[in-house]
Amino acid sequence: MRKFLALLALPLMLAVAACDMPPPEDGGVPADPAVTTDPAVPAEPAVE
User: Fold this and answer.
1) Buried residues in 6-22 as b, exposed as e (16+ CB within 10 A)
2) CA 1, CA 27: separation in Å to the nearest integer?
3) Where is this region: Disordered (predicted)?
């Protein structure tokens, strides 16, 4: 049971560690302009 809980907690700890890391000095990889996370932009065009 302990091993199961440890394996369950590992992804959570890695996610928290990744969020706490500062951004890279060079700005990192540029974002793909075709991909948007803006909630105001619909994922699919409206069908009329």
Assistant:
1) eeeeeeeeeeeeeeeee
2) 42
3) 21-48
